[in-house]
């Protein structure tokens, strides 16, 4: 960690020498007559505007009212982890600094500037440094040891040795087509109502929802082939590969207005226009909407910045690794992974809930943000609280079915880890953890590509876009694309049932656990813990059908009228959020994506009828959009007739198929790739299934052979004794202690993993989060014993990090063993980020 910091600091110093060279060499730049002090002041002003807005206190509002508004709950679920938060704020500082600087230039030159007017590379470098973006735009330092070929990094970095940022967490989503912004820079389509598209203004996303997408709860066509758990798996896997955090700011940068209280379009607020008779209006002409966090840099260049002069176009961050690697279980940053691990265990276990158990089975631990904004049981006595869960992804508590899936895989990790320890008693805790993580990641890949995706895009599209596995392709970029995460993979929202069912051991309704409406389980982990545990909920998912995506029954009112409603304190609309998010991200329109996929463009109403067979629906679409070229890609893809044997139309099948091929072929650690697993281990992995995971980690004894396939109980269900699973004996290692070298020395606050390199016995040491190695990382057994002394793990003093200080300047940083604390002084207190001192005005202190 310290090496990286020194590298970043050295680079910053080196660039400082050339920061002002543009003043002499850039005679053709628009900034040639602006003195350096003016530039510095402009950048400082841009940064301070973002910092002020960023520390508006969500948590205080939640604690103060006792009830979270739906908008604040969404903000909580979309709030980035600390590393993502730092990158987000740095990128917003950079963007705002450029805006302020251009305003100053406009005032000086008395002329307006287009947002894409040229900025010199040196000036952009200077802004990147002062804003804090520079360290995040450096290429990652990849480890060069035996272990790097055995296990993927938790961040996903260095998977591709030539492009180490491909697929890594906290990098930009991939653009498969150029962004479509109104100003060519960052302004979403629909921001300026005076702009016309093919002669027409874009429709309000809320009106599109109300008139085209919304369906009452009673208007549900059930899927005759697939069970409700197929919808849950789609959501769970989406949360494994994509998370685009919202801006951390709750107020506008320029005016300081709270986004919930203004309908003015001003970053980061992009409010959704509503009519006065709208059920969600709450007396305002808009619904609040926060823009997604921008990204620092271009994401995939190993050379610093690449072409810095084209860094203007706004990109969005993926806070997770792009890979199918079970980051839902383990996290995507070292800090999150550290919170999830039980480092005192000798079995490589994950942390579990120490307060509650489900018939002696484990629950997820609670988040350390206490009190969390999750709903509470109103009948609980003595103020007993059930907090939000802590998992590899921050959205694990959004609905009970998602929390159940996360819990299932926590249990599976610990079950496998204990079994591997019994088989290989000589393995260190780190070896067990990494081997188990590797197996769990492989199971996520198998269940998704073998069992799930073919049902979604159909056999023809699977063969066309994905096909058979032929090995790792280092030229394939696995980074999740913006259109996949923001549009195509959100098809699953149209398959969500409005009712949550819980069934008894005979798969019958349980009078003690009645059906619930979906809005009753939003952010309600207490229902999982206090109302029967996992088993009744999972039985309901297995035995009841998913909702079928029908063109005039897309999203039910639980999603369009009651999203994240916990009281009478308002609600949100998932459909409008999806449409607005697509515009926020600069996604091109529906027809451009059809052209991208080699599908014919639809130029007329008649053309539209060829892919959407419900004439009433096409009539409504044309009434609002007027021209097929104006249709938002999420709506257009969602409306298309299904391909044979699929649950998506041709456009989304194409986008999902292309993305899945990239995730598979561009992953050096894909389970089928040579040397990731032995042939014997691959054969065992193939035997496993989601049904087997359910059998091994719940009290359920009868399941379908394919959990996603809908069947009737009992005739279509099998006893768990007849559900195949893998034999872990394929992982048995015949260990004989090296007579020459003996067992390697253990280290405090770290561990080692055996590794074989060039036929020699080696061990690689790692330190726990918050510590760094001092000494040799890798030891090799020679005729004279281990070639080096074992290293030691020493505490990192985070407070000495001048490039990315862990605490805001308003707080005092205190180093602790393996971590740090940010302290405040009276009368101030810490904000929700745990890093900033704030006063009553919710603003950072000087």
From TrEMBL:
Catalytic activity: 2 [thyroglobulin]-3,5-diiodo-L-tyrosine + H2O2 = [thyroglobulin]-L-thyroxine + [thyroglobulin]-dehydroalanine + 2 H2O; 2 iodide + H2O2 + 2 H(+) = diiodine + 2 H2O; [thyroglobulin]-3-iodo-L-tyrosine + [thyroglobulin]-3,5-diiodo-L-tyrosine + H2O2 = [thyroglobulin]-3,3',5-triiodo-L-thyronine + [thyroglobulin]-dehydroalanine + 2 H2O; [thyroglobulin]-3-iodo-L-tyrosine + iodide + H2O2 + H(+) = [thyroglobulin]-3,5-diiodo-L-tyrosine + 2 H2O
Pathway: Hormone biosynthesis; thyroid hormone biosynthesis
Annotated Sushi domain residues: 739-795
BP terms from Gene Ontology: hormone biosynthetic process; hydrogen peroxide catabolic process; response to oxidative stress; thyroid hormone generation
Localisation: Membrane; Secreted
Recorded topology in the membrane: Single-pass type I membrane protein
InterPro entries assigned to the protein according to its UniProt record, in alphabetical order: EGF, EGF-like_Ca-bd_dom, EGF_Ca-bd_CS, Haem_peroxidase_animal, Haem_peroxidase_sf, Haem_peroxidase_sf_animal, NOTCH1_EGF-like, Sushi/SCR/CCP_sf
Cellular component, GO, one term: membrane
Chain segments annotated as coiled-coil in the UniProt record: none
Main location: membrane
Classification via Pfam families: An_peroxidase, EGF_CA, Sushi
Keywords per UniProt: Calcium, Disulfide bond, EGF-like domain, Glycoprotein, Heme, Hydrogen peroxide, Iron, Membrane, Metal-binding, Oxidoreductase, Peroxidase, Repeat, Secreted, Signal, Sushi, Thyroid hormones biosynthesis, Transmembrane, Transmembrane helix
UniProt function note: Iodination and coupling of the hormonogenic tyrosines in thyroglobulin to yield the thyroid hormones T(3) and T(4).
Descriptive protein name: Thyroid peroxidase
Gene that specifies this protein: Tpo
